[in-house]
Amino acid sequence: MSFEWLNAYLEHLDDLRKRIIVIAASIGAIFFFCIVFELKSVVVSGITLAYPYPNPFNPVAIQLFTKMRADLVPAAINGQPIITAVLTPLDAIMVEIKVALFIAVAIGMPIIVYQIGKFIAPALKPKEKSLLIKIALPSALLFIAGAVFAYMFVVPFVFSFLYRIAGSMVDQTFLSPGEFIDFTLTFLIGFGLAFELPVFMVGLCALGLVQPDFWKKNWRYSTVAIFVFGAVITPDGSGVTMFLVAIPMLVLYVAGYLISRYKYRGES
């Protein structure tokens, strides 16, 4: 009885273990840096440079939280300041952990993608490998574009809109750091994923799973699915932000169809 299959299986598991260790070590190192070191600035020959300085009470994670709080939430509503309040002893440290983990995954994403790609590459056909290489950069750029779009336009609007409603109901408004981070990261990740729609559409056409005209024929069902997706990823439940997700996705849907038709029109 041959045990070659078992040896191959064990080698595959060992390869997976090594790649998981590399990913975990990379994310862990960045995470540790973000909760231990503060970024300070120094001016050298008229150029402002940043350097790390050990300070667990104001590390990179807290610095980013402070920056996000200033960028996204109004300082005051109806003349009343919005007060950031820590309600339990664990609130602050949990926020710090979430922000540090987000930074670690974001910065470590090239390593994560590379290790996963190297692991699954032997099981892929040449056409599938070529497709992965071609869509890697567009996927990354679209995800970043979606997150930036949400950060610059959507999230500030949502916070201003919701706090204006709250300001008409109460005398004082508060902001929970934990709720703020959960709310914001949901939007950033959700919009990043939403902007991947053209890559998803073109990828399916490239693999021959659907034809470009499929997107045109089923645009009504796709529109409903887009609005459902917008409702799911927007945590405020107001309905307004659902449209802020759905409208850009509809534009991206049209773009995905046009790109698919241009590249694969001969296969329709």
Number of DSSP strand runs: 5
Instruction: Indicate the low-confidence ranges by residue numbers.
Output: none
| Distance N to C terminus | 49 Å
Taken in chain order, the helices and strands follow as HEEHEEHHEHHHHH
- Helix-and-strand structural type: mainly alpha
Task: Give the neighbour order of strands across the main sheet.
Answer: 3-4-5
Average pLDDT number? 87
What does the largest sheet look like?
A: 3 strands, mixed
Our count of domains comes out at 1
Q: Fraction of residues in helices?
A: over 70%
Computed over alpha carbons, the radius of gyration is: 23 Å
Outline the structure in words.
The protein is 72% helix and 10% strand. It is built from 9 helices and 5 strands. The longest helix has 42 residues, at 126-167. The model has no long low-confidence stretch (mean pLDDT 87). It has helices at residues 4-36, 60-72, 91-120, 126-167, 177-194, 197-206, 212-217, 219-233, 240-264; strands spanning 37-44, 47-54, 76-77, 80-84, 173-175. The protein is globular. The strands form 2 sheets. Strands 3-4-5 form a 3-stranded mixed sheet. It has 268 residues and is mainly α. The protein has one domain (4-195).
